[in-house]
Amino acid sequence: MPHNESTVREVGFVTRARRYVLYVEGLPSARVNDVIIDEEGNRALVHALADSHLVALALDPLFARVGMRFALPLEPYRISIGPHLFGRVINALGEPSDGGKPFPAGTVTLSLEGEAPGIEARTPEKEQLYTGSTLIDTLLPIAKGQRQMIFGGNHAGKTSFLTSVVRNQRTEDVICIYVLIGRSLTELQHVVSEVLGADDSGKNIIITALSDQPSPRIAIAPSIAFLIAEKFQREGADVLVVLDDLDAHAKYLREIALLEERMPGQESYPGDLFYQQAHLMERSGYFNDRAGGGSITTLPVVSTDIENFSSIIPTNLMSCTDGHLLFLPALQGEGVYPAVSEEQSITRVGPQAQTLTQKQLSTQVRMLLGRYRQQRDYAEFGAQLNAETRAALNTGELLECALRQDPSESIAADVQIPLIALTLTPFLEKRDAVFFLEHKQTIRSAIEKHSDLADLRTGARAGMPLEAYLELIKSKGEIFEKVCRV
């Protein structure tokens, strides 16, 4: 809103401007991250203070010129946070961008430099964030409160995976904040259709900071996401924040720093780049009751290619996250979903949130897959194979079939476990991968709906020892024979 004398504290004047970087004299009471407003209602963010002036970044498109008047309002800038955000698309200033009805008056003061809670506010991660992907939930689990980097080349299926994860949270009662940083309108429309297109969009919020918007607005989008996430977390909610992507975010921070004539660092990025992005990551966590309970899980995305895995952005984020998932375009081209290289991916926190059955099953699967891949490479030379080697190859093929799924599929954890464990029982050991692929959906449906198989789901949730669980699933062999009509 345009300012008037009754609502402002001080008035200053622009003495120099470089695109959206404004040098303003006056406003002696202004502090960093205050929002100042010109006579037409355009907003700018105070970014730095000097002896004789301040530096502000325009948040709205404007034609900056010397002599423009900017005022410091009496009241701080506030954004509106609450359940009314669910199912909505908002911009980086917390305003609706989807043409829907306006929000109630803002109640939360804009704060871009929130303090990351200390160790006294945190507790070890003990709950798993289920993605609906068998490969991830079993071999590369993500715990609530974890920071798991998603990186890889373009067209590697990262966005499809992330939107699938968000959709899966509808049944998990997790609030999801999907932030599009420097993306195009087409990409926004795709994410909106995937995340908010269903009748039940869950507790999902999309924050847009598109490439045609002012760079300062794009730069603050992740901070706004965490401001919203922390409000819900302090109320005891579990929140998932997707930052898509931080490579683009870093490039906008670099552009701003160069326009401000700050001394560039490595690869011309600002010297405090690592601090800025690491500070965001540290606001994630699994919090105790004194801090409001709840959790903030963060999936920062970095788009890169095979030659730039060791560049400054991926390596900086690797050092301040709890693991990473590497997406490869080659796997995407082969029809593998998700196109994740589990051999080159890691999760440091997730396994401690798994049940005993999942942990032991994951260990067994990794061992069997390692043996399978070794024997497969050996078999390519045309060597004569003994019965033990053929059995190892067959089991490995069955496991890879169990771990793969269609992009539109979301499989519950208590169905994933028996589906994988079944490959280690006589029912499938004497059959091949072709049989499993033909009957996989039938088997999955039976596990979900057959009353005599309900104890398989119950046992998976209860965390039975793997040996006991395998005995239980072996006892269901006749049922699976009937279901598959063999």
In short:
This protein is an alpha/beta fold and 486 residues long. 37% of the residues lie in helices and 19% in strands.
Describe this structure in words.
The chain folds into three domains: about 10-75, Elongation Factor Tu (Ef-tu), domain 3 (Beta Barrel); about 80-355, P-loop containing nucleotide triphosphate hydrolases (Rossmann fold); about 355-485, ATP synthase alpha/beta chain, C-terminal domain (Lysin). It has 16 helices and 19 strands. It has helices at about 135-140, 160-170, 185-195, 215-235, 245-260, 275-280, 310-320, 330-335, 355-380, 385-405, 415-420, 425-430, 435-450, 455-460, 465-475, 475-485, and strands spanning about 10-20, 20-25, 35-40, 45-50, 55-60, 70-75, 80, 90, 110, 130, 140-145, 150, 175-180, 205-210, 240-245, 285, 295-305, 325, 345. Strands 8, 12, 13, 14, 15, 16, 17, 18 and 19 form a nine-stranded mixed β-sheet that branches. It has a six-stranded antiparallel beta barrel with strand order 1-2-5-4-3-6. A two-stranded antiparallel sheet has the order 7-9. The protein is elongated and about 85 Å long.
